[in-house]
Amino acid sequence: MPDRNETVTTSDGTMEVFITRPDGAGPFPVVVQLMDGLGMRDELHGHARRVASWGYCVVSPDLFYRQGLKGPLDFAKEGEKIMAAIGGLNAQMAKSDVEAALSLVEGDQEVQRGGRIGLHGYCMGGKLTLELAQAMGARVACGASIHPGGLATDAPTSPHRHLDQVKAELYFGIADNDAMATPEQMAILERALGDAGIAYRLEWHPGALHGFMMPSRAELYHEQAAETVWQRMEDLFARCLK
User: Fold this and answer.
1) Which residues contact 152 (CB under 8 A, 6 or more apart)?
2) What pLDDT is stored for residue 62 in this prediction?
3) 1: pLDDT strictly greater than 80
4) What mean pLDDT is predicted for residues 128-149?
5) What is the distance between the terminal CA atoms of the chain, rounded to a whole angstrom?
6) Pick the CATH number of 3-241 from 3.40.50.720, 3.40.50.1820, 3.40.50.410, 3.40.50.300
């Protein structure tokens, strides 16, 4: 599977981007992977390769370049820096970063040009999935938001309050023991999604904790929930992008 690491210059610095796609002839639809708060690392490269194996070019930007943080990060040791980096990244910054990352594959003959894209993200990337579905509007065909946080809060900027431009079909994979995605918050989100007429599936994963998609975190990883989410994502992308 052809992998490459590239850099792209943005108005805020130089961003590294991991890109992978299948062997053989395309053109392959594009899926953007949005990282969690532990930063870009080999584990997320492996996640990107798994999605690419389904027949996609996966573009995964390192979104912490503004703060100079490099994954893998240790929350126990660097929690304050990580939370500051997450708090300093808004939807418009992420949109600009994703557009810059996408520019790296625009000239690739094996990559689909001008087509709608898919998104998937974990933790903070799950929140960004919903925010970018709004910010990028009709360009986003589908998105998978996995063990996200902050989707329905009291803040005026809460993603659930801003869904009028979302044209994507969405999937939400929610741990049933996650303080960042409580039943009350998810009920608010579902009401907002329904009011906006958005096609979505919100699925609770019994016994799962926040971070359940990451095998490197043995205390959080939940194989059954993770494999269910992988299948949901594969089905979603096939339905919307192929």
Assistant:
1) 158, 159, 160, 185, 186, 188, 189, 192
2) 98
3) no
4) 98
5) 20
6) 3.40.50.1820
CA 118/CA 129 separation, integer angstroms: 9
Task: Show me where the domains of the chain are located.
Answer: 3-241
Q: Which residues contact 27 (CB under 8 A, 6 or more apart)?
A: 109, 110, 111, 112, 113
Q: What is the pLDDT of residue 114?
A: 85
Separation between Cα atoms, residue 189 and residue 202, nearest integer Å = 10
Interval 65-106: pLDDT, tens: 999 999 999 999 999 999 999 999 999 999 999 999 999 999
- Whether the Cβ atoms of residue 202 and residue 186 lie closer than 8 Å to each other: yes
The distance from CA 87 to its chain's CA centroid, rounded to whole angstroms, is 16
Q: Find out whether 212 and 205 touch, Cβ atoms under 8 Å.
A: yes
What pTM does this model have?
0.97
